[in-house]
Amino acid sequence: MSERILITGSRDWTNHRYIATVLRIVREFHPDAVLVHGDCSGADRLSAALWQRWGLPTEAHPVDWYSSCDHTCRHGRRRGRDIDYCPNAGMRRNRHMVALGADLCLAFLLPTSRGGASTAQLADQVGITTHRFPKGVKP
Predict the structure, then answer these.
(1) Is residue 86 exposed (0-12), middle (13-18) or buried (19+ Cβ within 10 Å)?
(2) What's the count of helices (H) and strands (E) in the chain, helices before strands?
């Protein structure tokens, strides 16, 4: 079974060079790993694009905003710009990615990265080695 690297982070992350530096190091130790991500703008897509450019496999888990609310949703469906959506859909997707398992979690976090920070915390809780990279800190 292939190694799995879970990426989580801010949708507002724009520092491509920073992610490239981290992923180059990770690639040396995990050259055939599948990069698992939530397919969000920012850290997820920057990481996935680079990993794919290197010819390595990725596994995207886009959030299903149209899904029904479940027992974890305390808010009920909300009306967005053009859809009704479950506000808990992103967290449900993040829990699913963590539950699938990973050998390593890389979290590219800004102070406003609630989803990324909670995913990193979930990964920690299930024993996935998790490295947090706040913007501006050298890897």
Answers:
(1) buried
(2) 4, 7
Low-confidence ranges of the chain (pLDDT < 70): 1, 66-87, 135-139
> Model's pTM, two decimal places?
0.85
Q: Are 53 and 40 in contact (CB under 8 A)?
A: no
Distance CA 71, CA 128 (A): 26
The 10s digit of each residue's pLDDT in 77-90 is 445 555 555 667 78
What domains can you pick out in the chain, each with its CATH number? 4-134 (3.40.50.450)
Nearest-10 crossing angle of helices 43-53, 16-29: 50
